[in-house]
Each structure stands twice: as C-alpha cells, then as structure tokens.
Amino acid sequence: MLHLPAGRYYLTSSIDTLQDDGTRTMAVLYRPELVVDGSASLTLDARVAKPIDVRLPDREATTTAGSLMVQRNVGDDTVQSFWLGSLDTLSFAQLGGAPTTGSLHASINGLWARPEAWEGAATPQYHLAFALPDKANAGLTRRLTRKDLARIDSTISAPLANRRARVTAIPFLPDGTSNLGVAVNSPRAVPRMQTDYVNADASWSFLLTQFDPEGYSEAEYYSPQRSYRPGRTYRTGYGVGVFGPGEAAGGGPWGLFRTGDALDLTLSLQTDGLGHPGVAAQRDDVVTRTTLVADGATVFDRPVAPFVDNLQVPSGDARFTLTSSITQSPRRSEVSTRVDSTWTFRSATVASGTRRTPLLNIRYAPRLTADTSAPAAGRISVPVTVEGAGGGVRSLTVSVSYDEGESWARVLVKGGRILLHPVEGAESVSLRASAVDGHGNTAQQTIVRAFKLTPRG
Predict the structure, then answer these.
(1) For an engineered disulfide with 117, which of 113, 128, 302, 326 has Cβ 3.0 to 4.6 Å away?
(2) Which fold is adopted by the domain 51-238?
(3) How far apart, in whole angstroms, are the C-alpha atoms of residue 72 and residue 31?
(4) Can you give the residue ranges of every domain in the chain?
(5) Residue 145, burial from CB neighbour count under 10 angstroms (0-12, 13-18, 19+)
(6) Pick from 270, 210, 207: which is nearest to 241 by CA?
C-alpha cells in the first residue's frame, strides 16, 4: 500500500518474467496521468502488454536491439524513461488515454540484422523508428517491404592501418523528440562498404566511431540529421580527407551561436572530405587550444578543443578573433597532424532567441584513396571552396608546402581549383589559405600533411 498526496502522477512499471524455456521477458506498462484524489486500487498486469512484431523483406534479419522511450512533459519539467535491450523480449502497453495536462511522447527505435552481423559479418543493417500514439495502445506490428525503406551505401575508411569502425543510427521523430542511437557492438575493419536501411517514420543522423588497434575510441564523425525517401538509394563515405575546419551540411548543432551575451562553440577542426564533422579523442598525444579575443581583450584561453558552452562575452557589438588548433602524433593520424584556424567576425548582443554566426572555412576536395593519399606523379587538381561567405568571397589565397610547413609557395586559384606539382621525394602535401568575405569576416587556416603522396611509379 502506498500513501500519496493528492495530485497527478506519471506511472511506469517494468515486470521481468522468467519463461518456461529459461528466457526472460520484460513487460513495460506506463500511464501518462494517474489522478490520486482518494483511496483506489491499481492492477499492473504484464499480460496487458503486447510484443513488438516487425517483419522485414530480409527474413533472416531478426536479431534485434533497441529501446522504448517514453517522455512526459508538464510545463518546464520533463521526465524521460528508457527500456533497453532485445526488442524480441520486450512488450509494452500504455494504460489510459492522453494526459489532460502537458504532453506525452513515446517511440520505439531498433536495429534489425542477421545474427552473423553481431560477429562482424558484412550484412545489411536495418534501423527502424516508430512514434507511438498518446492514447491507450499496446504492442507494435509492422510489415515492411523494400519500398518502405531507404538504402544508404557508405564507404568507411581511415587514414591509418589496422583501424575498426562502428556506425550508430540516431532517429529524430516528427514530434521533435529523439530516441537512443543503436549500433552493432562489434566494430568492423576498415576500409569497407556498409549498407544500412532506414524507414521514413523518422529523420536520421549517423555517428561513426573509429577505434585504434587496442580497441579504444580515437575519433568520431557525425552525419547531420536528414530525411531519407523510401525506395531510394543514397551513397556517402566517412574517414577520407582532406580533414580540416568545416561545418556539417545544413549546420545543425555545429557552428557558433550567440544567445544574449553568451557564445556556444561547437566547431570541428577535423571535418572529413565529405563534410562530416570529426572529433579526436583527448589523449596525451593530442594537443588542443582555443582562444577568443574581443576588441583586443582576451576573454577565453584554454587547452581545449573548440567545444565551449555559455562563454560570456562583453555586451554590445565587438570584433572577435577566434583561434583554435589541434596537433596529433603520427600514432593518432598520418594526415592533418596539425590544424590551425583563426577566424575574425563581428557579433553583437542578441536581444531574443539564438543567432548563428557564420564562420569562413576553406575546404579542399582532391581525389584521394581510402587512406587519404594521392599519386605523387604528375599534377594534382584540388577543388577549393569557401564555406560561410556572406556577401560572396572577396579574396582567397592558397599556399602549398611539400616539407610539412617548413617552406611555402603560393599557388594560383583559378576556376575554383588549384593545380599542384609535387616535388621529387615529397611524402605529403600541406595547405595554407586565407579568405575574406563581402562582410569583412576572415579566416586563416593551415593543414599540415593535408594528404599523403604515394611514391612515383
């Protein structure tokens, strides 16, 4: 017996049952609103919960892992509940209808794959998410065909040998909520091709985690949230350079934002060649530093990557200089071993809401192999673009080094590209550039060992 003050409550219950065959099942019951205004009895019966039954065109893709998420919002208060594990053994039911105050959001997210995928086999993976109604309901039944799914073919690479990688899919539901990302636990060797399928009930973001030979995470690359149309095939890739400063296509949470007199920085100095922002794991042989100066006065200077929240800056309008760098030992990366970026921009107090401040980034797109290399013989054509240029690009200069930044030579930018002629014996190409946009914002960026050179044949 429970004694509770009168009021409205949100109830969840999970009932673990040992079956006759020795397996265990989990029944989840949740009630969005329970009104307590006197004596009452409440029965929680696991038999009310119904299973999750999803059938795919690949009949062998039956091994599942995932989560049930239930979120209850009342005013400014939010309570989230997650139940994780095999969806084969999970059942659920919502008791009662929609809440009379606040809101309820519930969803199922799961990964379906053939059993051998969990042992590292290269089989397709099916990432599916479903929003649940905010009325009394139990269980989930879906029958999907190829026409209900979008296919994503990814080329996954790394600039170092003996690396492994894992891809996690994160769903975003139409009601604005997200569920936990799910991935096959066994990272697989790279380079490789991977095929993923997703449904259109959610938009999706992907996270690639790269592991070193000892099995420790050493880098992550983020694919921005987007929708995929069922029946279509999409192609992308991760882990090939040039790695350097850059924001995700569409922005998303990546960038520089101002709210009132506070700046939030989520910037990548290691965005890969296809625009996936990257982050290196913090190790003793990875050195970072970020500095912010406002009208000549230093307001921030710490040995951290450019991921800073609620950085207080002077009120009013000011000219800012933001500098960030990362240096990695060859053990961590054979390319982009040092990246330096300095941005200048103006920013003023934001009276209401949050405002994104565009930053200039110089991006390079040479044709590279899976280990971020190009042949040393002949000339190398490198397309060059400038991201975030307000009012167009006023000026752009690029220099190249074949001795890891010891000496530099200016190269002509013509038709949106540069032509490189590596010198005899060069093992890598380093790039340095300066850009100014039509609003007077600037960027100066250096990438040491932007890509490797394979010996002349």
Answers:
(1) 113
(2) Immunoglobulin-like (2.60.40)
(3) 10
(4) 51-238, 255-454
(5) exposed
(6) 270
